[in-house]
Write a structure and sequence with these properties.
single chain; 209 residues; mainly beta; five-stranded mixed β-sheet; three-stranded antiparallel β-sheet; 0% helix; 36% strand
Length: 209
């Protein structure tokens, strides 16, 4: 008998809340199903910036700029149990994913199956065994793309100033800022057609479009 994760990688959106990861019991159909238990632990995923924490900040959605954040609720001794004669041969592990408003790369949680009991008849190794699996947490926010609303703007020469509009599309998570500069076209700053902008800064607030 072998127990293993069903997949090497599970993927969930950051706003999924509590998700379920499946562990299965592998054995011949003719073999009696005896009770089996194993302990599952979590840790930081391989090579990716997942941050394990003790809680999801009381379920609150963390604001942009938050540094004391967590991506998931870690655990170190969650028991997986397969019952005697249970025909489903599957057990579910709940993992709480923490949501925030930060725009970030995919993060991962690593899960490891410990030594099963009874160890004399059950294994977590072998060609069919997946003792280690990862949960990918996919960010549910997007900072979006900032661009001018038009390729050209028109203003009367005696208007005093021109209004140029910038918009953000495809998402609005967190603050965004960008540098703006101007250069001569048919108008010239040297002949006072306009006042040049060398390095202006434009800022958009969280969720501002």
């Amino acid at each position: 008998t072998t127990i293993a994760f069903v997949q090497d990688l599970y993927s969930f959106s950051e706003d999924a809340g509590t998700v379920l990861v499946t562990v299965t019991r592998l054995q011949a159909a003719s073999t009696p199903r005896t009770a089996v238990t194993a302990v599952v632990t979590t840790s930081t995923g391989s090579g990716l910036p997942a941050i394990g924490g003790s809680a999801c900040q009381s379920g609150e959605v963390l604001a942009c700029g938050t540094t004391d954040k967590v991506d998931y609720r870690e655990f170190t001794g969650r028991v997986v149990e397969f019952l005697t004669n249970d025909p489903s041969d599957q057990a579910l592990i709940p993992i709480e994913i923490c949501q925030d408003q930060l725009y970030e790369a995919e993060t991962r949680v690593k899960m490891t199956l410990g030594t099963p009991s009874p160890s004399s008849s059950v294994s977590v190794t072998g060609p069919l065994a997946r003792r280690v699996a990862e949960v990918a947490i996919v960010d549910d926010g997007d900072a979006g793309t900032v661009h001018f609303t038009s390729t050209s703007f028109s203003v009367a020469e005696n208007a005093g100033q021109a209004t140029v509009t910038i918009t953000r599309v495809g998402g609005s998570s967190c603050e965004a800022s960008l540098k703006i500069s101007s250069e001569d076209g048919t108008a010239s700053a040297d002949t006072f057609d306009y006042t040049s902008v060398t390095e202006g800064t434009f800022a958009m607030a969280d969720h501002q479009t």
